[in-house]
Automatic annotation (TrEMBL):
Residue stretches making up the RDD domain: 15-136
InterPro entries hit by this protein: Pra-immunoreactive, RDD
Topology of this chain in the membrane: Multi-pass membrane protein
Protein location: Cell membrane
Lineage of the species this protein comes from: Bacteria, Pseudomonadati, Pseudomonadota, Gammaproteobacteria, Oceanospirillales
Species name: Amphritea opalescens
Transmembrane feature ranges: 21-43, 55-73, 102-124
Name the UniProt record assigns to this protein: RDD family protein
The entry's keywords: Cell membrane, Membrane, Transmembrane, Transmembrane helix
Top-level taxonomic group: Bacteria
Amino acid sequence: MSISFPEVDGELRQPSLMRRFAAMIYDAFLVVAIWMCAGFAAVGLNQGEAVSGPIFQTVLFLLTFAFYAYFWVRLGQTLGMQAWKLRVQTVDGHHISLRQALIRFMTAIVSTACLGLGFFWMLFSANKATWHDSFSETQIVLLPK
């Protein structure tokens, strides 16, 4: 069952690349704080010794996905997106599914790994979609003030 967002006054526009990057920077600070808390807990559980390795990296990866998935699926906005008046939604204006959040998250990693090409793609796309917008069948909209 897909939940629709409440109607807003005015037409929803596509945000600029700079606004998207600003929200991403804001969210990056939050993700780093989550990583620090996880690292603190892991060091405590490891008798004060440094923690590394594939299990710890996997935990950090899953925590990062959980952060984005929770906010995207439940609210349509991360905290950075709220600050910059952005929302992720399906093309027809509904909340995205967990499956779409996973596709969006994984494709955003690829977009970033290709030196940001997946993000800059929106400058040449007719509907201003990034790779992760296109593959997950979602869109970012700019909410009115």
